[in-house]
Design brief:
single chain, mainly alpha, 2 domains
């Protein structure tokens, strides 16, 4: 899952060092599963040390920590059943949008960047009122 969340850029960064997919998986396993630091993991795989790969592996650690933090899901479901407040958060596929992790939040689908501002509603209201007055 974490490999998918990193996207193709991680594979491209490893491939740019002249190493194949096996080293990519080895690096991910060392960092995510074994807890090796990104620098030490790259030292263990000769020829793959690069700043972009280090950045990718640090991002993989962030994703791992988010996934491990998903233990809040069941307590939040129980809180919801008791009509308690559940903090909001985005929903969606964590591979496409890693910000959806941690789960256990009150999911919303609105994107505040695409919600029209109040001015738009005022203009639409004025236009609608004009049409209504013309019909009367």
């Amino acid at each position: 899952m974490i490999g998918g969340m990193l996207g193709t850029s991680f594979a491209e960064h490893v491939a740019a060092t002249g190493n194949g997919g096996e080293n990519r998986l080895t690096l991910l396993a060392e960092v995510v599963i074994n807890g090796t630091s990104p620098n030490d993991a790259q030292t263990a795989c000769p020829g793959v040390a690069h700043a972009d790969i280090t950045s990718d592996l640090n991002l993989a650690l962030d994703y791992r920590n988010r996934i491990e933090g998903c233990s809040i899901e069941i307590p939040r479901i129980l809180d919801a059943l008791e009509a308690k407040y559940i903090p909001p958060g985005p929903n969606g596929d964590p591979v496409r949008n890693p910000d959806t992790l941690l789960t256990g939040r009150n999911l919303h689908t609105s994107n505040d960047r695409i919600i029209p501002v109040i001015l738009v509603f005022l203009v639409i209201g004025a236009i609608s009122a004009g049409f209504w007055l013309k019909r009367r």
